[in-house]
């Protein structure tokens, strides 16, 4: 992988794989897939949370470990259809606005009961805690990169996932506990693997991919998006 930080026209802004110019007109402009775009969102979230101290909060650490890191370790992405504001409000208003699981706290998050269907009968309102603690069954195919259930079960990825869990459980800021050091060392050892490289992207000061850095994303993404569209048009013209 290259080490300097810059936007690379023609390469996916997350995984650095070559882009198909014919696909650039879609909503995941700059990414090889919607899957990669969603994974970049999670990487940015985790990077920011462990730097601003939110990851030391027990519930936030649990969200990062059970959702963000688990998704990235298995190579999953939440690419299901977006809920309309009207449907979201209708779901959260059920049960008098209370979580349907604990029936105590206010429902703030929409849960898919089974798979990714956004039919009203498959949606329910949960509080954040109950949503995080919800028992997870088999991984639905629509969360996987190929849509056919393929996940990353390599020993390296699962070892890194466990080290992430230990680092987050330490409730210490980044690099202020031995668990963070252990995670860094193993990520360096596994740098040539998919999740090892992603872990390095999260832990380092300047990730190789600007799409993984919150500041660059906010300030530079609009310009790069335009550049990427222009590149695709030029490629299409040259091949016609």
Automatic annotation (TrEMBL):
What domain of life does the UniProt record list for this protein's source? Bacteria
Recorded GO MF terms:
endonuclease activity
Q: In this protein, which residues make up the domain named HNH nuclease?
A: 87-132
Q: Supply the alphabetized keyword list.
A: Endonuclease, Hydrolase, Nuclease
Task: Read off the InterPro entries from this record.
Answer: HNH_nuc
This protein's name: HNH endonuclease signature motif containing protein
């Amino acid at each position: 992988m290259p080490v300097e930080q810059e936007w690379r026209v023609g390469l996916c802004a997350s995984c650095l794989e070559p882009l198909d110019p014919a696909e650039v007109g879609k909503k995941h402009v700059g990414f090889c897939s919607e899957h990669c775009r969603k994974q970049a969102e999670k990487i940015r979230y985790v990077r920011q949370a462990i730097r601003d101290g939110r990851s030391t909060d027990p519930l936030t650490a649990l969200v990062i470990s059970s959702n963000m890191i688990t998704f990235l370790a298995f190579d999953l992405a939440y690419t299901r259809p977006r809920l309309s504001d009207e449907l979201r409000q209708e779901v959260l208003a059920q049960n008098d606005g209370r979580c349907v699981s604990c029936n105590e706290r206010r429902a703030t998050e929409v849960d898919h009961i089974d798979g990714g269907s956004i039919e009203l009968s498959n949606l329910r309102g949960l509080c954040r805690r109950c949503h995080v603690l919800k028992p997870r069954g088999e991984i639905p195919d629509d969360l996987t990169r190929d849509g056919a259930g393929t996940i990353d079960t390599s020993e390296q990825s699962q070892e890194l996932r466990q080290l992430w869990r230990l680092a987050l459980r330490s409730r210490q800021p980044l690099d202020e506990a031995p668990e963070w050091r252990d995670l860094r060392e193993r990520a360096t050892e596994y740098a040539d693997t998919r999740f090892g490289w992603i872990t390095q992207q999260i832990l380092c000061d300047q990730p190789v991919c600007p799409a993984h850095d919150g500041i660059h994303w906010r300030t530079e993404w609009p310009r790069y998006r335009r550049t990427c569209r222009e590149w695709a048009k030029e490629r299409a013209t040259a091949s016609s």
